[in-house]
Amino acid sequence: MTYSPRTFPGYGSFAEARRVASLLRKETVGGILLVIAAAIAIVWANTPFAESYFALRDIEIGYEPWHLRLSLGAWAADGLLAIFFFLVGLELKREFVAGDLRKFSTAIVPIAAACGGVAVPALFYALIVRGDAELSHGWAIPTATDIAFAVAVLAIIGSHLPSALRIFLLTLAVVDDLLAISIIAVFYTDHIEIVPLVAAFSVIAVYGFLAQCYREFFGLKPLAAWLILLPIGGIAWALMHASGIHATIAGVLLGFTIPVLHRASAQEKVREKSGLAEEFEHRFRPLSAGFAVPVFAFFAAGVSLGGADGIREAALHPVTLAIVAGLVLGKPLGIVLTTWLVTTLGRIRLDPALRWVDMAGVGLLAGIGFTVSLLVAELSFAPGAAAHDYAKAAILAASVIAAVLAAIVLGIRNRQYWRIGERDSVDDDGDGVPDIYQQEERRDEWFKPGPGARRRE
């Protein structure tokens, strides 16, 4: 039998699998720091010292003539998250150039799954808050996926989730982020200042030109390119902020301009296989995961619930029910149903070692919509409004519920994942690359699910 490319999820190349594994390890640390920062904020905001927390969050710094006198909370949401979204742009560019999204055959399933994972939660939310014009503005809150929080859950429960499913989860989350960014840009922009917007795009174009031609300007010195491009990126961010479009959009656009691959000329002795993207990811990933996102979570997650009565009122509020239903039920339902529909219509087989319950577990992980959901909540409701605080509390509650349910589902399947890992690590030719990434034989000829699982000779 020959290997059928119509099997899902795909494994891709071994180099891509190693890159994704390394990236997710970094995101795991960031996810744990994010959870710790959010927990500190929640506890602090519900103690007798709550006023000091809100006073810290509301301290304003910055240059007023440039419209940059912002509170620390606003700097975290508009400024620090731009670093996070810059990395989102880099990852999107990499996926489109060298990852699963570069081919229609491998892109269709995660793209469709991400679309389903956005549309169904939004529909759940809209149905629950229907008739309330103020609450309906938050329809996009349950559409996001927090990959850092999700992989932190995998680390905590010690899941052996197969590499193919991890790659699918990351790809789905990246597309999900693209959709969330598009929603923020289109639906959460109240007004646009044309002159700053045109200037912002002009600066981004200059940034992109220098990034694409960095070897001509800086030689083979990525550090020099980084030091020159950083202030230009800062100017683009400030102009985007002044235009009225959320400043984090600048981060994504700047990330899109960074070259992922580089083809050396025949005359060059040094052949550089990767572009600036790898250098920038190496420098910015720790800053994003270890500082930017946790600080944003610290300032965004602090909600004063007002004791038992306040918690009861928040739990029964329509915005709470809508967000929890959207993330905990809508996300996995949208992802699983859309994936099933696309694979059925496309005659794509699920890997014989997996079951649809595994996709449900991945869908529940995607229901952890922490970081971007908090950002959308900030944009949806005015600070001080009851819906503003209830939405944040609901995001926290829904993320915890989705994490617990995902841990249960994936924990039950962990022994099966361990067997799949054993299968995927076989390297008979001893070349350092598992045979699963090289051979043409069907994987279901290698593996038979169940207690008698073994490799067939």
CATH architecture title of the domain at 7-65 and 105-176 and 300-424: Up-down Bundle
Low-confidence region ranges: 264-272, 440-457
What name goes with the CATH superfamily of the domain at 7-65 and 105-176 and 300-424?
Answer: Na+/H+ antiporter like domain
The biggest sheet amounts to: 2 strands, parallel
CATH topology of the domain at 7-65 and 105-176 and 300-424: Na+/H+ antiporter like fold
Topology:
Blueprint lengths: L6 E2 L5 H32 L4 H8 L2 E2 L8 E2 H27 L5 H25 L4 H4 L10 H11 L5 H25 L6 H19 L1 H5 L3 H22 L4 H10 L18 H26 L5 H10 L1 H28 L3 E2 L5 H11 L3 H11 L5 H27 L1 H11 L33
Parallel strand pairs: 1-4
Antiparallel strand pairs: 2-3
Helix pairs in contact: 1-6, 1-7, 1-12, 3-7, 3-11, 3-12, 4-7, 4-14, 6-17, 7-15, 8-10, 8-11, 10-11, 12-16, 14-15, 14-17, 15-17, 16-17
Short description, anyone?
This protein has helices at residues 14-45, 50-57, 72-98, 104-128, 133-136, 147-157, 163-187, 194-212, 214-218, 222-243, 248-257, 276-301, 307-316, 318-345, 356-366, 370-380, 386-412, 414-424, and strands at 7-8, 60-61, 70-71, 349-350. With 457 residues, it is mainly alpha-helical. It has a domain at 7-65 and 105-176 and 300-424: Na+/H+ antiporter like fold.
